[in-house]
Design a protein that fits this description.
Length: 318
């Protein structure tokens, strides 16, 4: 039994965002059929929450132009939550008409990033997001509300934590189903993670909290561990470490799903995820794009690799 300095949870939920956050960063268009196969592979790997697309203007993010077609082509998996990102009311209406039941409504705490990402000031985005939450709830949709640039912004530097807090509390008052805090430009540190969550957790009550962390400065897994020690048990990850923000210069990918699984399993924390099956998906997109991604473990975890001595908790894991 692991001798822990910190008391970690027995289980952690990983929310796979590669099909959205990862694919949107690639200029080579991925056929819808391949997206369906990859998402199916992630489900087979044991992932129960997948953000599959975003409803954004196809000229700004061409990779997401097939959002409706993708949802129509996806099977319905029992026990699996499929969600999409919406940034404005038009996108929300598209998601609703497509039959999507789970959406993320995400706004930026950085005015500069908000203008580059959505064409709206941060204050305008807050107002519009409130209208969007009301629309979504009236139409029976589950809403995850996100605060982008919660830990800093490459354009504006440090973001005042009280601003992030107020945005989160506004969402809580509207009855959202979950809150996420995003390190959109990869500026988080263990200290900023701990400071924000120490303030946020007592203020928001029992609402589920998700950490969306990027690895731009190489602190992704360190920040995950810091958040875990604060009591966060839900994390966004992307297979192979894909992703980044198209509107942030030098942005790197999300924490790789395989890397997160390896770390968590080494701490005797269950994720329910088969790392080798996720790696199969990662190697597939690596072959499709003809490039290597930022994740470390997806190559080591390939099914043909002999990794029997690495830590793991479940049959089929490393």
């Amino acid at each position: 039994m692991l001798n822990r300095t910190h008391v970690y949870p027995e289980n952690v939920t990983l929310i796979e965002v590669g099909p959205r956050d990862g694919f949107q960063f690639e200029s080579q268009i991925i056929p819808t059929s391949i997206k369906v196969d990859i998402i199916g592979g992630l489900v087979t790997a044991g992932i129960k929450h997948i953000q599959v697309t975003s409803f954004v203007h196809p000229e700004r993010v061409p990779q997401m132009a097939d959002a409706e077609a993708l949802l129509q082509a996806l099977p319905v998996w029992e026990g699996v939550t499929v969600s999409g990102l919406v940034l404005n009311h038009r996108g929300l209406e598209r998601a609703q008409h497509a039959g999507l039941k789970h959406v993320e409504i995400s706004i930026s705490a950085s005015d500069t990033h908000s203008r580059k990402n959505t064409g709206m000031s941060a204050d305008d985005a807050v107002s519009i997001a409130q209208q969007m939450v009301n629309f979504a709830k009236k139409n029976g949709m589950k809403v995850r509300a996100g605060v982008q640039c919660a830990f800093g912004c490459v354009y504006e530097g440090e973001i005042e934590w009280k601003r992030v807090m107020q945005m989160a509390l506004n969402f809580v008052e509207q009855g959202v189903d979950a809150l996420s805090f995003s390190d959109t430009t990869g500026m988080a540190t263990p200290g900023s993670i701990q400071r924000l969550f120490a303030a946020v957790l007592p203020a928001v009550g029992e609402i589920p909290i998700i950490a969306h962390l990027h690895d731009t400065r190489g602190l992704g897994l360190v920040n995950l561990l810091a958040a875990l020690e604060c009591g966060i048990t839900r994390f966004d990850t992307a297979f192979a470490g894909m992703g980044g923000c198209p509107f942030v210069p030098g942005a790197a990918g999300n924490i790789a799903t395989e890397d997160a699984v390896y770390l968590l399993h080494s701490l005797d924390i269950d994720t329910g995820v088969d790392i080798r099956k996720v790696a199969e998906c990662s190697l597939g997109v690596e072959k499709f794009f003809g490039k290597r991604f930022a994740g470390k473990m997806y190559r080591l975890a390939a099914p043909e690799t002999n990794m029997a001595k690495l830590p793991g908790r479940r049959s089929g894991d490393l």
